[in-house]
């Protein structure tokens, strides 16, 4: 007696390919939900734009190697800086804050100041490293 062999179907001819495609769609939809941005958004000016900032609308802060803040050669605590910026924002709505950072400053102090600027909704914020002399 001869045994009949069944014809083997390829992957494309079976319903398994549609099942795999459906599972991949579900997988990517679920993964897309986990993509969370833990950073912060800052509006940066366009590359070719020029923005006029009046001298009265500019605040310059310095951060030394220990992470201490100073404004106009006087040291400030983080809360004093916050109060100072808040009062300046009320007086000058187009306030621009500039932070000059020493290369030895702890990165967490810099991040904390950037978060403070974001919290106070400073639209024009800039920071740069001090040039070593």
TrEMBL record:
It comes from the Bacteria. GO terms for biological process: protein transport. The keyword Membrane applies. It is a single-pass membrane protein; Single-pass type II membrane protein. It is found in: Cell membrane. One of its GO terms (cellular component) is plasma membrane. Keywords: Cell membrane, Membrane, Protein transport, Transmembrane, Transmembrane helix, Transport. The keyword Cell wall biogenesis/degradation does not apply. The chain crosses the membrane at residues 20-44. GO terms for molecular function: transmembrane transporter activity. Pfam families: ExbD. InterPro entries: ExbD. Belongs to the ExbD/TolR family. This is Biopolymer transporter ExbD.
């Amino acid at each position: 007696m001869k045994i009949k062999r069944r014809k083997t179907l390829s992957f494309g001819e079976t319903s398994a390919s549609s099942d795999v495609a459906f599972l991949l769609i579900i997988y990517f939809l679920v993964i897309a939900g986990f993509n969370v941005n833990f950073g912060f958004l800052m509006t940066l000016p366009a590359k070719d734009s020029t923005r006029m900032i009046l001298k009265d609308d500019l605040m310059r802060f310095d951060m030394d190697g220990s992470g201490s803040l100073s404004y106009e050669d006087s040291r400030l605590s983080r809360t004093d800086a916050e109060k100072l910026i808040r009062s300046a924002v009320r007086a000058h709505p187009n306030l621009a804050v500039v932070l000059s950072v020493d290369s030895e400053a702890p990165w967490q102090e810099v991040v904390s100041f950037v978060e403070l600027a974001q919290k106070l909704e400073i639209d024009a914020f800039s920071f740069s490293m001090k040039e070593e002399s």
